[in-house]
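During the second half of the funding period, the structural biology subgroup turned its attention to how the target accommodates small molecules. The most pressing case was MRU, which had performed well in the primary screen but for which no bound structure existed. We therefore specified the complex as follows and requested a full 3D prediction, including the ligand pose.
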Amino acid sequence: MIKTLEWTDAGVRLIDQTKLPTEELYVTCKNYEEIADAIRTMIVRGAPAIGVAAAMGVALGAKQSPAKTLPEFEREFDTICNVLASTRPTAVNLFWAIRRMRVKFNSLRARPIEEIKEELVAEAQRMHVEDIAANKAMGRHGAALLPERGGVLTHCNAGALATAGYGTALGVIRAAVASGKQLNVFADETRPFLQGSRLTAWELMKDGIPTTLIADNMAGAMMRLGKIDAVIVGADRIAANGDVANKIGTYSVAVLAKEHRIPFYVAAPISTVDLKTGDGSGIPIEQRAASEVTHLAGRQIAPDEVNVENPAFDVTPNRYVSAIITELGVARAPYEESLAKLVNSRAQSS
Ligand code: MRU
């Protein structure tokens, strides 16, 4: 399995996703500021991977703290959490992970500082392991929803690279293929950052899963030609009512899928479900640099000074979503009820 991120003695090792697919390079972040930079610059990206990277960042920052007293240590811990929380706004897994580290810290206040540090490192490592397990469980729940054979369209990269390993949407595809289903995955290239062509195509081909790359504006034509039997994507944040924020372009795919009566599935861990946000209008959408749109691989492809919009995510209203696949089971409309039920089942069992 691709090692997207890894805790090592030298620091947090990340596969540099900005260099794929032409170079498979790894960077080791030696302090929490370097991890924050890696999240901001998308060396590591994808909601669950951002969450685990941030948890490791909190653990690394705490581990390296020279603080001698609890109040000093706590002040520093706060700064570390705030720096990491300011990196990207949309993926709720980032805030979920930092909150979990804060809760852990608070439960350890009575312990010596060295012990608190060790426990924080262990907690971040646990989150890494749990994320992979959650993806495998999503695979088990979701594989049955995909057809026995046919085309499955995905958008952006919701694979091993976007998580601690195995993937959410691509995890479901992996599980379906492992169960004997004959699928051809259509990967949208995903303008402007090209996660589909650079990352999804690379990781699926590495696994030997049949993959066809298309430009984003070809999805409708492929559906009309009968080449797509299901759509499956990941999510950066799912509101309580089932509205889904995911990579820009997901909404267009969902609308096209409904027009062509093709099921549109979302695979995401429970940590992506944000019950505190009632509907999609409350989800903050990251705006990224204009240069991502005006330039391609460093080359200018638009006139100087042109006005640009570059929202990194869009919101797909719940009425387009056929089902949401989580590690705890599959939620269907009405999502207010089904999602709350799944989240509460987790709360009761922990
Ligand atoms: O901007 P990115 O590359 O971090 O956006 C990633 C996505 O939108 C993914 O589809 C989403 O995080 C799900 S990842 C399992």
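Two results from this model are relevant to the next phase. The mean pLDDT is 97. DSSP finds eleven helices and 16 strands in the chain.
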